[in-house]
Predict the 3D structure of the following.
Amino acid sequence: MFLNRQFCLSCKILRGRSCGISEKFRRYGGESLSRLKRITTWHSGVIKRNYHKAKVEMSQFPVENIRNFSIIAHVDHGKSTLADRLLEITGVISKDDENKQVLDKLQVEKERGITVKAQTASMVYQLDGKKYLLNLIDTPGHVDFNYEVSRSLSACQGVILLVDANQGVQAQTVANFYLAFESDLPVIPVLNKIDLKNAQPEQVAQQMEKLFEISPDQILKISAKNGTGCEDLLQAIVHRIPPPCSDPSKPFKALLFDSWFTKYRGAVANIAVIDGSVKKGDKVVSSFRKKSYEVQELGIMHPNETVTHELYAGQVGYIITGMKTAKEAQVGDTLYLDKHPVEALPGFRPAKPMVFAGVFPTNQSQYRNLQSAIEQLTLNDSSVSVNRDSSAALGQGWRLGFLGLLHMDVFSQRLEQEHDASVIMTSPNVPYKVKVSGAKSIKQYGGEEVIVLNPSQLPDPVNITEYLEPMVVGTVITPTQYAGEITRLCLVQ
């Protein structure tokens, strides 16, 4: 009866009503959980995983019927809402008022209303009598999570550039466009929120033409909230984005572009299959660690983990291989079949942290627990740099590097919410460089230039010949009427 109560409690928490599993449990005389899984299916309110049968047979999608794409935009331009509508139209989720920000799975994302982690979801879309597999990657919009966007684009063959018809082109719109441009990815320009009273679709379209040389005729106009124009967008994805350049006949090769850690299953890796195929029971090798693993489970995000029998060339999914530590699932790694080595993929350009802060446990007895929590979170967010640190007042801890202040704040919040870690975080600062003189100082610090992350590490001022601080080269994009005021502000500051 304990299992019976647990199921009902889960359903009530998620939907506020029972799913009837308790009645089925009584009907079969309290049989085992495995028996119950064979005779019933979780309803839409409970986190779904198909244990006995895959919902989607992946072999029915040849490479030419696969489209891998990402949604890029400035923060709050409607990426998550658009993802919800696309999932509804393709039947992945039901049309329900409670289906809001389905791909924003972290507690911090729901509380703040922003996307922090890129998430994937696979959809099946039928057009002109053919079934297409559409793999969507929803990306963050804030500049502090720009590394998530660059990683996601590596698994895509095209992007949707989403612009708010009310706000117009903003900073991350420009930054994300050039990320896609540098990757030579086709861009589908889309104006969102055309239903708003103050929307100015024609003016914003002119902005996009001037900044990105995008013809207004190519721009789709939609309302992600109401679903207006979303069907046309799905057709544009099929027609405008090319299929992946993958070869099913070649040996298996996959890019590990994201990963996260679970307590009982170890590291779960998101992979983009470049060539060949992989199935449960295969032995795969990490190009980074040269270590062999057996595939224990694989599947697609639909939108939650859905087990499949196999993943084929061009497809995006997840794989569980029994990696026991967070460090084993190296983002940017290449996976291949044992005894069938392949040339490693180039991986990712490492992120460059700009803000540093010390993180210490409130009680030194919690040092090991905090270490494990940081390792697991940095697996999920590889843009964070980690170095050991110590303080006379706070004891042993770490010096963490972040891409910005929001990034730091979100990481601290995730430590508390996901790992129940109580931490002390020092005031953030930026790295400095100093140049030292004297043979003794140069030998002590290993060179003339010394990077200083902590004021306590500053060399003796007597030996310092020059201090260097970080500088930013920024581009300001503004309407002509504000150029004079902005120029004066820059000169004053």
